[in-house]
Design a protein that fits this description.
This protein is of the alpha+beta class. 14% of the residues lie in helices and 31% in strands.
Length: 397
């Protein structure tokens, strides 16, 4: 489906109206003194009516923000998530389906993309810690944030209906500030400049999650709204020949805009690893910000944005990024004869969660590093200007 038609179809499916026309009249006048210093024309691509946001505070030009179609919370976040067992979920989720896996303190939860693709945000509490689990289909960004408490109130997030660089712009209900999902950064409103903590998480197959966390809970389909869970409203979007939806920015050299990369951002330095190279090599070793890391890829996870039914999507694989040491002991990694990742020092076999599953270090865990598994255009928009692209010549075979 052509993406412009897809956006209209999604709005219709959600039963919500959309208006991406430029602001006029009193709305335009009320913003004039705020937008003029930034060189904006006032012909904005989003609505400000009924928002209590402080639009005089923003860190990005308003011309970069545009309506994505649905209005505020037209794509409804999940505010009271319920969870079920793996045995129950097996009746409606297939082994190859992608889930966002989040683990902390020995506990884990799976958030199926077949649910997140219709809601994009889950406001949850994990072992007493408020978190937001987010997924932006347009850039394939699955990011888990800590939800901070500000002025005595813990933030909860919704979908603003707006996009910047084809990435979801979230909003918090406590201050109505707007947040860039990819970065976890407030870009408009009272909290402009505030950075959310990004927590390690990854998109993996349902089977991989079950194997690694047999007691892990899974987000239930009992969300309080009716959606076609299991179906993909973005059929064919995960195609390297496609163009990004509503994206007007530059794209870094070396890859097509819709190619998948694994991006690691350590603040002072960032690097993107092409998934095509990872698919070929299975494991990449690198030095980033003075630390040795390992990037892993394993097959068996369906693309969420390919086929009509998510479980039938082409094999996009799963990725993990970790510090390549345990208790101060440096490890290097290779691919064994069974195509599993093993370390050269002890011969231990490691899975995509960084768990030692066989050998002398069985039961040990590598330290995970938060990473993005996204389209190249999205990484180019937010990070590539201060990073580099890992090449096949960057490390020995």
């Amino acid at each position: 489906m052509h993406l412009l038609l897809l956006a209209a179809a999604l709005v219709a499916t959600l039963g919500c109206g959309a208006d991406a026309k430029a602001l006029r009249g009193d709305e335009q006048a009320s913003l004039a003194r705020c937008t003029a210093p930034f060189g904006d024309s006032g012909e904005l691509g989003f609505k400000t009516a009924n928002w209590k946001t402080d639009f005089c505070k923003h860190s990005v030009p308003y011309g970069e923000i545009q309506s994505g179609g649905p209005p505020r919370d037209g794509i409804p976040p999940i505010d009271a998530p319920s969870f079920t067992t793996q045995e129950v979920a097996d009746s409606w989720i297939r082994d190859s389906e992608p889930v966002i896996a989040f683990a902390m303190g020995g506990k884990a939860r799976a958030y199926p993309i077949q649910i997140l693709i219709w809601h994009e945000i889950v406001n949850d509490e994990f072992e007493g810690i408020p978190i937001a689990v987010t997924f932006c289909p347009l850039c394939y960004a699955a990011v888990v944030f800590g939800r901070p408490t500000i002025n005595g109130k813990t933030l909860t997030f919704g979908t603003s209906g707006n996009l910047r660089n084809s990435d979801m712009v979230m909003w918090d209900r406590q201050t109505e500030s707007w947040w860039q999902q990819f970065e976890g950064l407030a870009i408009v409103g009272e909290l402009t400049g505030t950075q959310l903590e990004i927590l390690p998480a990854s998109i993996v197959s349902w089977k991989d999650f079950k194997d690694a966390f047999p007691d892990g809970a899974v987000l239930s389909r009992n969300t309080g709204v009716a959606r076609a869970y299991g179906k993909n409203p973005y059929v064919g979007y995960d195609d390297v020949a496609k163009k990004p939806f509503l994206y007007r920015g530059n794209v870094g050299e070396g890859l097509a805009p819709m190619e998948h990369v694994v991006g690691v951002d350590r603040g002072s330095v960032a690097r993107a690893y092409p998934v095509a190279l990872l698919r070929k090599r299975r494991v990449l070793l690198d030095q980033l910000d003075g630390e040795a890391i390992v990037v892993m890829w394993t097959p068996g996870t369906a693309s969420a944005l390919d086929a009509k039914t998510i479980a039938d999507g082409s094999d996009a694989g799963a990725t993990g990024v970790f510090l390549s040491s345990i208790d101060g002991r440096a490890l290097t990694f290779t691919v064994g004869r069974d195509n599993r990742v093993v370390d050269n020092e002890t011969g231990t076999t490691w899975n995509v969660f960084g768990h030692g599953i066989d050998g002398p270090l069985k039961g040990q865990h590598l330290t995970p590093i938060a990473h993005h598994r996204v389209f190249w255009f999205s990484w180019s928009a937010f990070v590539a200007h201060r990073g580099s692209l890992f090449s096949e010549a960057s490390t020995p075979h």
